[in-house]
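Figure S4 source data
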Amino acid sequence: MSISIPPALAHAPLEIGDNESIETATFIPDPTKSWAIYAELHEGGEAQYYRFNITTGKRIHIMLFKSMRPEESDFLPGFVLMGPSLSDQGTVPDYVERPAGINASVFEGDQPAQGTYEPFSPGTFYSLGEVEIDAPSSGTYYVAVYEQNIGGHYGLAIGDVETYGIDEWILIPLSLLGVYQWEGQSLAMVLAPMIATVAAGAVLVGWQLKKREALGKVTIWTGVLAGLLFIGSGVLILFQMIYSIMQTTFGSEVVITLVFALIPIALGLATILLSFRDPEQLSAKKQISFIILGVVALFMWAGLFLGPTLAIITGIMLLFAKKR
């Protein structure tokens, strides 16, 4: 089962492994599917390799980009596309491995004056170049990313068909944590807005529960913490939006980011209100509501897995409490 999404949405992430020789090139399972690769060249004069199999006439679409880290302003990678019946173009660097009898097209990186704002992550990057052609022959093709002088963080977007398996979709929040670190942020910096939101909310909730003499109500706490985690993930997105637009130009696409931020915030508020509503009530409607909120939050990338888990657990706890 797969989920189809708009073409502008971020590509499915792909793990790369050790790919610093053409024999260990990272295999791309379906080059027509949209993949995103976030990687790092460790030094100048180094290349990293990718390979895929494709049939004649299928679309080959490759885009190279780099992070906007200030310390990597001089990092300007390029890439070589190698495969049967391609037009030879440019000079392949001598340190880039090239299979015998394979044609190669060289695409040198060209950094624009302004970076690109990506509203769904959200994030920023410099787009350095791309190629979009129909495969001239069936066979194995290779992509080599290289930089002559220095190392740095680069990315590849491959393919056009934007579909996700359910597991890929659900795991996107974890992938985004890696992307933010690829951009140059520490994990602590990324999670700080969410942690601060949960901590501040927990203090306020504890104060309210103390006034109501309900500090010991476990299901209230689990439900509220789920809601705070949902809200925290929305705040995290807002923080990333602000961090990104401070680095580059932006337009109406920020509305998309705001929608992605407001959805988990709305889920969080609904979960907290449900937790406080009639604490002694153990109706099936309330139990199911928690479970539904947890499942919806999981697919809306809210709460970094812990929030949805707590919401579902709250519904199950209420179910067992009713049976006693």
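Figure S5 source data
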Amino acid sequence: MTDLVDRPVPRQARSRERVDVICAAALEVLRRGGIAECTVAAIAAEARITPASLYRYFANVEAVLYAVATRQLDDTNERLDEALRNLRSRNHAREVLITLLDDYESRFRGDAALRAIWAGTIAFDSLVELNVADSRRNGRLIAERVSPHLRRPVDPAQAFLVTHLVGGGVMLLLQLDDEEADQLRTGLRALLVSLLDDGGSAKRVCTDAPPAVHSRTNAGGGKGS
């Protein structure tokens, strides 16, 4: 029995534990000071380790934020996966999607660290790519789960676009006063559940937009005349 108790923790397990501690410390730093205060020194101090020890596991702050963001995005995907199981009908899917959107907003409102991580997706290229990949993953999952309850399956590309737009919309919503936020929330719900419309409005926006709009933006960089 003594041998079991005194046996050293395997190196791999110790490494995972240290990574967990560093990620938890980064979240606390983000909650207190946001992305601007999230430095190697601050994370190391919160984790009660030296910066040199932190560098054994992460090359820089961006790498720490990438690990933290990955965990948060995986958690959101798991919630989505769980909620979209055993859908009974199109109406049930609509209710579930709206509930998921409201829960997503609530979690971001309640945790400054989540909002700071989102800010990091603007500051760091690796987080931009991670966020886009996550939107694609979530859109693919939504399309897969709701399509059996529709006359025509949801285009995964359409679901990817809507999922990404809704995620960004929630971040905008958090910056607005209550009245304007309520209006935007209604629009975000409508955009999300438009995926359940056979040949719905979101798809028409994608396919019907005139190519000239894109051309004017690239050429002039300003408003079209």
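Residues 69-207 form a domain with the Tetracycline Repressor; domain 2 fold (CATH 1.10.357). Residues 1-10, 199-225 have pLDDT under 50 and may be disordered.
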